[in-house]
Design brief:
Elements lengths: L6 E7 L32 E5 L7 H5 L2 E3 L19 E5 L3 E4 L5 E5 L5 E5 L8 H4 L18 E8 L5 E4 L6 H8 L17 E6 L4 E6 L14 H6 L6 E7 L9 H14 L5 H4 L9 E6 L4 H15 L4 E4 L8 H18 L21 E4 L7 E4 L1 H9 L5 H14 L1 H7 L7 E4 L2 E4 L29 H11 L13
Parallel strand pairs: 1-3, 2-4, 9-11, 9-12, 12-13, 13-14, 16-17
Antiparallel strand pairs: 1-8, 2-7, 5-6, 5-8, 10-11, 15-16, 17-18
Length: about 500
């Protein structure tokens, strides 16, 4: 038996970028062939795409982890690595994507709508791409970036024109089965629908969809019973239809009190899509009242008593029987007319325009703040500095020197100097903490040394620990052991 799943948590991971290659061209009679290391390939991304053939989130319930392909590393002879394969996840129409904090990040409506759930990491540059006037033959390459990792919540909110609202066993499933070709579960004993059922209703010139959702009970707006699962699927409905059981034998229930209880729950529920899509509260949607099971004699008498009171509220009232099909024709045409009027009243959907968010001209792209946990330390935050840290091979001195030049050009060193940083102060960027040493001023040529080395890292004007220890001993009047007399 198939299962319907309308809320899942998925863990998506994009592919990592491939590492760049550090290679030197070697050929007979060409000793100075130059760098020829290729770039690493970009990692694959994870995308969600609306597929009309998918109607449930069941696949993600059993396979919540999704991983895209990694980029391949570069190679010598200027060969770039292959790009990682993208992973496309097919989701039903009406899927809402939320982040770990519960904020809506995407509302996927319409076949083909795409959302990039996780972006693949960029491949690292090879030494051929890093060659410059200062570094004609770099002995290093950049590492590939890690792909984005995210935990997302997928919620399916049914896309229907008419939503049937009612207590359990009010006859909603029976009504959907006779108005459309849908075949929900129907039985002659009390039970409630556990999953939404969608049906397509066709009239002379109109086609609309109708949704049968789990039954509502008092307290549903606060999560009692299946209320929240029920109300979620009504957020997109243009028209709400109260289905009332006029033949119920439960004490203390009648059509008017049932409708009042339903209206109280609709008014208390706050749709999650209202803020972004302007659908409004459920209490503001158009209403109709359907008095069901009037084929029962006592039910017909009760309908005669409550119909005038319901009509005074300004609602259209229909008396039907899903068993004998009494009143279904009038109900079908009335629902089609109300749906058509709602569609005509809505503004035309304009094509989405690309959103451009230009950066300010004077935006530095990073921030420097004192480290609250380390006295005299600083923390550098920013997309580019943190990305450069992840791309650096710290076991290669030339790569570290290249990182220092990039940070200097960005203005990190000037900002540290302005904030009063002393040479040797611990500076944290991303996951790496190092002792800050001012580099050579901009415009100076990089000293030419062996491949993979940087002479600037070997010189330092800062007093080392051994020298500070020796100075402290001298201030105390102590001498080295070699200068002390025998037996001292």
């Amino acid at each position: 038996m198939s299962r319907f799943v309308d809320r899942v948590t998925i863990h998506v991971a994009a592919g990592n970028g491939g590492h760049g290659c550090a290679s030197v061209h070697r050929e007979k009679f060409k000793p100075l062939g130059g760098p020829d290391g290729g770039n690493g390939g970009n990692g694959g991304s994870v995308r969600l795409v609306v597929d009309p053939q998918v109607h449930t989130l069941l696949d993600f319930h059993f396979r919540p982890h999704a991983k895209a392909g990694n980029g391949r590393p570069g190679a010598g002879d200027n060969r770039d690595g292959a790009t990682g394969e993208d992973l496309v996840l097919h989701v039903p129409d009406g899927t809402v994507v939320l982040d770990a904090d519960g904020s809506i990040v995407a509302d996927l409506v319409g076949a083909g709508t795409t959302f990039e759930a996780a972006q693949g990491g960029r491949g690292g540059l090879g030494n051929a791409a890093l060659a410059s006037k200062a570094r004609k033959a770099p002995g290093f390459a950049l590492l590939g970036e890690e792909g984005e990792h995210r935990d997302l919540v997928l919620e399916l909110k049914s896309v229907a024109d008419v939503g049937l609202v009612g207590f359990p066993s009010a006859g909603k499933s029976s009504l959907v089965s006779v108005l459309s070709a849908a075949k929900p579960k129907i039985a002659d004993y009390p039970f409630t629908t556990l999953v939404p059922n969608l049906g397509v209703v066709q009239t002379a010139g109109d086609v609309f969809t109708i949704a049968d959702v789990p039954g509502l009970i008092p307290g549903a707006s606060t999560g009692r019973g299946l209320g929240l699962e029920f109300l979620r699927h009504l957020e997109r409905c243009a028209l709400l239809a109260h289905v009332v059981d006029c033949a119920t034998l439960e004490p203390g229930r009648d059509p008017v009190s049932d409708i009042d209880a339903l209206e109280a729950e609709l008014a208390a529920y706050q749709p999650a899509l209202d803020a972004d899509h302007g659908l409004g509260d459920l209490a503001d949607r158009p209403r109709v009242v359907i008095l069901n099971k009037i084929d029962v004699p006592d039910a017909a008498d009760l309908a005669d008593l409550v119909e005038p009171e319901l009509a005074q509220r300004g609602w259209s009232v229909f008396r039907i029987s899903a068993v004998t099909h009494q009143g279904l024709r009038e109900l079908t045409f009335a629902l089609a007319r109300m749906v058509r009027e709602y569609r005509d009243s809505q503004p035309k959907v304009a094509a989405r325009r690309p959103i451009i968010r230009p950066k300010a001209v004077d935006e530095a792209g990073f921030t420097v703040s004192p480290d609250p946990e380390t006295p005299g330390g600083f923390i550098v935050r920013g997309t580019r500095p943190e990305r450069w840290i992840a791309q650096t091979q710290f076991d290669n001195d030339e790569a570290v020197g290249y990182l220092a030049d990039r940070l200097n050009r960005l203005g990190v060193e000037d900002e540290l100097t302005r904030l009063g940083a002393e040479p040797g102060a611990p500076v944290t960027i991303g996951d790496v903490t190092f002792d800050w040493e001012p580099t050579t001023p901009m415009g100076d040529d990089v000293p030419i040394t062996g491949r993979g080395t940087d002479i600037r890292l070997d010189r330092s004007e800062r007093v080392g620990a051994a020298e500070r220890k020796q100075a402290r001993r001298l201030r105390r009047g102590l001498h080295d052991d070699e200068d002390a007399p025998d037996g001292a």
